[in-house]
């Protein structure tokens, strides 16, 4: 029995180590890594947020945690598959077959973003998990573009002294404007704030205004 298992293992390893299948296997490995990473990231976040801020039984909360984790893992696995397959196709169908084009990553990323994170459900909804992922990516893109804009080689600001000054002062200004804006929105237009952020802000800034005993002042908010 052990010899048979060892034989199967050797046969599988001969396939996955064969350069002929490397491109397609990279797609499979990308999907696997996307699913694993999505589960690792989403599970602890969903566990904390749902058990702290959602009402319902333990079973209902556990179901929500499982659903959020599964959705995140599936989305990243699907995106990795679409992206890597598209990159593979563009590589072989481009003007120079076998060579990656300068805009292949953008086109592949855009297609994956549309198919995985931009599509609505049959009921016309976009999942909250998809929205959170896209907003997370958008924020990182804006920060990267801001950094590029002041790099002498590629940016719009070429003066080294001005670049240094902006690099030093930009983050405090950005932090102040971001927090000022979110507090203003939460105060006057709370329905526009993402539900998870709104729940945490309500817990910190609204529920802290109310208590009627030492117990719910120190232990419970309500």
From TrEMBL:
<protein>
    <recommendedName>
        <fullName>Peroxisomal membrane protein 4</fullName>
    </recommendedName>
</protein>
<dbReference type="GO" id="GO:0005778">
    <property type="term" value="C:peroxisomal membrane"/>
</dbReference>
<dbReference type="Pfam" id="PF02466">
    <property type="entry name" value="Tim17"/>
</dbReference>
<dbReference type="InterPro" id="IPR019531">
    <property type="entry name" value="Pmp4"/>
</dbReference>
């Amino acid at each position: 029995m052990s010899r048979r298992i060892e034989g199967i293992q050797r046969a599988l390893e001969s396939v996955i180590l064969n350069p002929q299948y490397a491109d397609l296997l990279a797609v499979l490995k990308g999907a696997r890594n996307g699913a694993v990473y999505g589960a690792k990231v989403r599970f602890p976040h969903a566990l904390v947020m749902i058990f702290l801020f959602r009402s319902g039984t333990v079973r209902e909360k556990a179901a929500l945690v499982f659903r959020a984790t599964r959705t995140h893992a599936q989305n990243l696995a699907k995106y990795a598959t679409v992206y890597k397959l598209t990159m593979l196709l563009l590589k072989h169908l481009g003007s120079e077959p076998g060579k990656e084009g300068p805009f292949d990553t953008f086109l592949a990323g855009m297609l994956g973003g549309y198919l995985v994170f931009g599509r609505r459900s049959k009921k016309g909804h976009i999942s909250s998990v998809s929205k959170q992922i896209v907003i997370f990516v958008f924020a990182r893109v804006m920060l990267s573009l801001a950094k590029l804009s002041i790099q002498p080689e590629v940016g719009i600001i070429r003066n080294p002294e001005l670049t240094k000054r902006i690099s030093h002062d930009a983050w405090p200004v950005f932090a102040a404007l971001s927090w000022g804006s979110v507090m203003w929105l939460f105060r006057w237009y709370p329905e526009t704030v993402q539900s998870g952020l709104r729940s945490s802000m309500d817990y910190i800034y609204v529920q802290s205004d109310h208590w009627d005993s030492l117990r719910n002042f120190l232990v419970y908010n309500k």
